[in-house]
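QA checklist item 7 of 12: single-chain prediction sanity check.
[x] sequence parsed
[x] length recorded as 347
[x] structure emitted
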Amino acid sequence: MGQLNCFIGQFVTDLGAAVHTGMVVIGEKLGLYKALAGKAMTSAQLATKTNTDERYLREWLASQAAGGYITYDAKSDKFSLNDVQALTLATEDSPAYLPGAFELALGSLAAVPRIAESFRTGAGMGWHEHADGVFHGCEKFFRPGYVANLVSAWIPALDGVKEKLEAGARVADVGCGKGASTLLMAKAFPKSQFFGFDYHDKSIEAARESAKREGVAGRMSFEVSSAKDFPGKDYDFVAVFDCLHDMGDPIGAAAHVRSSVARDGVWMIVEPFANDHLKDNLNPVGRVYYSFSTLLCTPCSRSQEVGLCLGAQAGEARIREVVTSAGFTRFRRAAETPFNLVYEVRP
C-alpha cells in the first residue's frame, strides 16, 4: 500500500500540473500576473483592475495559490506575488520568465489526437501544422535562456567569435523561428550583418515585424528558406538554435552549412541538454524534453525527407556523428546549462 499511495500522490501532483498549464496561459494572456506584481489585492480589486469577472478570477486565484504560483494572505484575503513569483511570471524581459513554456505545452497538446494516430501509421506532422500557441510559446520558452546566456556566455565560449562579431561579421541564424535569437545578437553586435532563415512563413513575417519594432531592420534580413538550401556564402558565423534535431535530414543541413560557412568560420549548434544514454536522461528535464519530442520534434522530422528523427534528447555523441558525417573536422562542447548544450563546429 505504501508504494501505491506514493504513486497516487505522484498522480495527483501530475494531474494538478497538467491542468495548471491552462491556468498559467490564462494568467499570462489576461495580464493577471503583471497586475498582481506591484500590489496585494483581493479578487474583487484584481477583477476591477483587469476588467475580468470576479467569480472566474476567484477560482483562478485559488488554483494559483494552491500551486504556489501566487501568495495568499488569509488575514487580509489578498493575493500577491513575491519577488521570485514576479520575476518568473510577470517580468517578460527576465531570464527566468516561465509562461511561454506553458503556452508551448498547451499548444503542443492540441495535436494529441493526430499524434496518437501517427503511432499507428508512422506519419509525420510538420511544424507549420501545429496550433499557433506552439509558435508563440516556443519563442517565449526559449528566449529567456537566450537572454541569460547567448551574448554573455555562449558566444564568448567560442574561440574568437565574439571579437569577429564586434568587428563586423556575416551571420546566418538558420531555423530562426520568430527571430528572438537573431535580434539578441543584432542588438549586441551592431557592426555585424544578420540573416535569419526559417521554412515557416508566418514566423518569418513575425521576425520582420520584430526587427522593425526594435529598430534593427537595416542590419538584418529574414527569408523563408530551409536549412538545406538557405542562400549566401562565406558566413563568418552560423547559428542553429534548438532545431537541428527537428530536421528530417540534419546531415544534409550540416553539409549545406559546411558549404556556406567561411574557411575560418564557426558553426554554433545549441541543442536541448541530454546525456548520450537513456538511463542518464530519466530525470525531470529529460521528461520534459522526451514529451515535447514525442509531440513536436519527432513528428516534425518524420514529415520531412529522410526523417532521421534524432529527437530532442539526441545527446553529444549523436550530434557529433551528424556533424562529422557532413564533412566538419572539429567539434567540441563549448558551454552548457541545465537546459542546453552548446557546440562549436569548424570546417
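[x] summary fact logged: Residues 1-90 form a domain with the Arc Repressor Mutant, subunit A fold (CATH 1.10.10.10).
[ ] second reviewer sign-off
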